[in-house]
Amino acid sequence: MLAGIVPHAKADGIEKPNQFYWPTQLDLDPLRFNNVESDPYGAEYQRNYHKKFATLNLDQVRADILKVITTSQDWWPADYGNYGPFFIRMAWHNAGTYRVLDGRGGEEGAQQRFAELNSWPDNASLDKARRLLWPVKQKYGEKLSWGDLIVLTGDVALTSMGFKTLGFVGGRPDDWQSERVYWGPGTSFFPSKAAEQAKFDDKGNAHLEKPLAATNKGLIYVNPEGPGGVPDPALAAKMIRLAFGRMAMDDEETVALIAGGHTFGKAHGAAPASCVGAAPEGAPVEQQGIGWKNSCVKGKLKATDAITSGLEGAWSTDPIHFTNQYLTNLLSHDWVKTKSPAGATQWNPKDAMNVVPDASEPTNRAKMHPLMMFTTDIALKTDPSYHRIIERWAAHPNEFADAFARAWFKLVVRDMGPKTRYFGPEVPSETFIWQDPLPKVDYAQINQADIAVLKKAIAASGLSDREMIKTAWAAAASHRTTDHRGGANGGRIALEPEDNWAVNDPDELKSVLAKLKTVQAQFNSGHHGKRQVSLADIVVLAGSVGLEDAAHKAGVAIKVPFAPGRIDATQAQTDVNSFNALEPSADAFRNYYREVPDGKSPTDALVDRASTLDLTIPEMTVLLGGLRTLDVNSGHSENGVLTDRPGVLSNDFLVNVLSMDTRWEKSASEPGVYEGFDRKTGNKRWTATGVDLVFGANSELRATAEAYASADSQKKFYGDFVQAWTKVMDLDRFDLQR
Are 690 and 433 in contact (CB under 8 A)? Predict the structure, then answer.
């Protein structure tokens, strides 16, 4: 570089990412999430964390947490001398990012520690909650993840204030970097009032972009002042129902969570928002990651100096004990709109009296305050369905307590998947339908000799390699690592709703499954002692049979590893509505794409799909490349089958997508399709989609594709393909992973 020449990327003194200059460039960063290089505990931490956790004395940990809860610190004084409500909010907000449509968010990983979640307005001051807990985390180190500590602290807080929880579940290993998640449109955390009102149609129905659950980026659920800050309880109720529904909560669970959470603590808005400093990510270095500093405080900090939501007050007269006051107070008062000291709209009783203790001086009877409600609280009273629930629970407080215990448990473990991923001595014995349960079996698993017999029977069933591979992929690739749901285990590929998903080509699928069920029935009725085989195992084993034969056709001998032990669920153990959330609107590995509600392009959907399957960039590349040659596209589409020998497992797709012998043009008749012409003859040779051509167009993906398309790559291609395939088949085999 010539002296004095400033690189363009640093022309303004700030290095820019590639996407600054090329906004349409495919973002591959989601496939680099949780790289082992980021983990200070090493490659085995995720796999072995539960073993470390099992060595904890949970009674001692609870005692240590309780000491923190009841020991107010001068640098951040506790409301009423008790951090319990504060810690409940911390656990609630860490869990409350979960959304059922893509399984992202939730407690596992403790993403609340990282940007952007750590600086969301709705998470204001939770940076202090985690700092208060640091001595406990420091004491137990890698034995106790932040994810488990946050949930356990919420549990201890509830218990210490007189509430009985269902139990505690451990087993959440931590993340070590911020996950890239689409939390909503725009660059601001609170959009304009007009943008919020646009979420309602002309009939007043609420709409929210998929897969989002929170109504605004920066909020855990909904705006407590009402949609767009407009204090309309009727509109707020509609948005509450939509947002909580996206979190897999029904009306009773929604009311239980709001009422249970607002039983404790208070809201904070004791001063104008102009007093509040930058969030943690924007705070000056001397604040050491602590944000939202109240610059208006003069002298010693008091509990009543906190500013978070801008709303001010408590819902009950006893904010540090579990009662049903929230319900009775909501029903027994006429509520009128007022303003908090910070200028936010809230509601006070029409006959307001000073009955709530002061957070800084709770024993000073001369310093009391009126009750308070949010617009979203009033919504529970005005909405007919919600109103019936609160009336019933106000009259039957034990029902309310039970409902809150169940809803809280679901909230903090919903993203953990099935019970086989739960650890600790306090795991509840009760099983819930939302845990995607599997039955207990009384038969022995098949052995290696049985596997050989079954492979011969499958090969003789009359099924093609394509049918067997496609069915195995459909079953296993329904898994998503975001919340550990779906997958081949359970055999739900043969149950509603999966057997009718469009991507699975239902008519063809049912025909394939009928033949595989015949193989299963013949084996199970034979002379195999107490050993039986599940349909789930048969489906995956059939995929192995198909792959081995497809490689044999290329003159290559491969052996696809197979671990038996899958179990078949029943239809009664399958929540159809819940499982419908797993239906893919795009599966690039089968070149399937329908209009994606969240606006993802086909190539973005490719990366999203690969990330939910926990694939790396090389794994995504070799899998898609191999599957294209196997001719397993949904609808038997020819798009992307860039090989003259379809059905043969080879690297032909990768070779041909990189070849300069083909000239590509957009199709004039089929949107999203490209036509490949031989440069010499001009003859049309291939058709492809954007997710095919991106492996030649994107510089990073092209570099990876080159590794598998080289003349000396045969061993690597087949070895890596089999390894990636097996990884997908076993994503839900938590019994093998731990």
Answer: no
Residue 647 is which amino acid?
G
Least confident of 26-40, 155-169, 669-683: 26-40
Residue the block writes with tokens 């082992």: 36
Compute the distance between CA of residue 399 and CA of residue 522 in angstroms, rounded to an integer.
50
Report the candidate in 45, 447, 377 with the shortest Cα–Cα distance to residue 225. 377
Is residue 171 within 8 A of residue 424, CB to CB? The reply is yes
Q: Is 0.90 topped by the overall pTM?
A: yes
Residue with token string 């739960």: 422
pLDDT tops 60 at residue 9: no
Annotated catalytic residue within 93, 262, 268, 484 = 93
DSSP state of 16: -
Contact call for residues 633 and 639 (beta carbons, < 8 A): yes
* Mean pLDDT of all residues in 87-108: 97
To the query of whether residue 268 is one of the catalytic residues in this protein, the response is no
pLDDT tens column, 307-364: 888 899 999 999 999 999 999 999 999 999 999 998 999 999 999 899 999 999 999 9
Cβ–Cβ < 8 Å for 578, 248:
yes
Assess whether the previous peptide bond of 349 is cis (omega < 30° from 0). Answer: no
- Placement of tokens 């490949």 in the chain: 676
Residues 6+ positions from 31 with CB-CB distance below 8 Å: 607, 610, 611, 615, 616, 617, 620
- Per-residue model confidence (pLDDT) at position 596: 62
621: enclosing H helix or E strand? helix 617-629
Per the DSSP assignment, residues forming a β-bridge with 307 are 269
Residue-by-residue DSSP string for 171-235: --PBPSS-------SSSSSS--HHHHHTTB-TT--B---TT--SSSTT-SSS-TT-GGG---HHH
